[in-house]
């Protein structure tokens, strides 16, 4: 009896959980690219296509755009946690990293900030708050910022910076970043 299956299909093996983890990583990377290029207007299906996985895999991992945005920001928050863990990191270092992340995550900023009460988003907010708290305490102790600066001030500043960069034309983002950072530095300086 002759098989109608292609030779490739016959040799294909189910990689199980390893494939699922690889697919998830590929989807997150693809989402960063797709939404950086096309913004929120980009079709959700384009993420699966760019990642080289099926639509079913996309929806199994991320049932909606918010779930995908949360996954992107979870990676961002994990990066901030690791980056700022070094004892010499400052609020200025945090702002540098937020700028780097905001430039490639602009569309996701709109998604994540659309519903801050979503439990998936709230958890990320709590983790980010802990990063900022550690840096504010460190910078207060070192005299790099004034005693008047509170954790919520820095959290607000980073949110303002990320949101402004998301709304700014890509070519103008570096100048907008410098201007905003100058304002924050003046506001946070010891008095």
From TrEMBL:
Looking up SUPFAM superfamilies in the UniProt record yields: Homeodomain-like
Q: Offer an example of a GO molecular function term for this protein.
A: DNA-binding transcription factor activity
Superkingdom, according to UniProt?
Bacteria
Spell out the Pfam families in the cross-references.
Answer: TetR_N (PF00440)
The family database entries (InterPro entries) matched by this protein are listed as: Homeodomain-like_sf (IPR009057), HTH-type_TetR-like_transc_reg (IPR050109), HTH_TetR (IPR001647)
Q: Specify the HTH tetR-type domain's residue ranges.
A: 21-80
User: Where are the stretches annotated Disordered?
Assistant: 1-21
Q: Which UniProt keywords apply?
A: DNA-binding, Transcription, Transcription regulation
User: Which sequence positions fall in the DNA-binding region?
Assistant: 43-62
Name the UniProt record assigns to this protein? TetR family transcriptional regulator
Q: Which organism is it from?
A: Microbacterium kyungheense
């Amino acid at each position: 009896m002759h098989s109608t299956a292609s030779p490739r299909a016959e040799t294909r093996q189910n990689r199980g959980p390893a494939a699922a983890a690889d697919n998830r990583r590929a989807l997150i990377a693809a989402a960063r690219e797709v939404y950086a290029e096309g913004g929120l207007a980009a079709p959700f299906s384009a993420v699966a296509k760019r990642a080289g996985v099926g639509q079913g895999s996309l929806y199994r991992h991320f049932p909606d755009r918010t779930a995908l945005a949360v996954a992107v920001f979870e990676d961002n928050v994990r990066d901030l946690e690791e980056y700022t863990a070094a004892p010499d990191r400052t609020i200025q270092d945090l702002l540098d990293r937020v700028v780097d992340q905001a430039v490639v995550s602009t569309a996701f900023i709109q998604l994540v900030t659309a519903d801050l009460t979503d439990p998936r988003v709230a958890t990320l907010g709590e983790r980010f708050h802990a990063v900022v708290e550690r840096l504010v305490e460190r910078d207060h102790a070192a005299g790099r910022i004034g005693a008047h600066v509170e954790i919520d001030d820095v959290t607000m500043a980073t949110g303002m910076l990320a949101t402004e960069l998301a709304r700014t034309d890509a070519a103008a983002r570096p100048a907008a970043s410098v201007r905003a950072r100058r304002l924050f530095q003046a506001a946070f300086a010891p008095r």
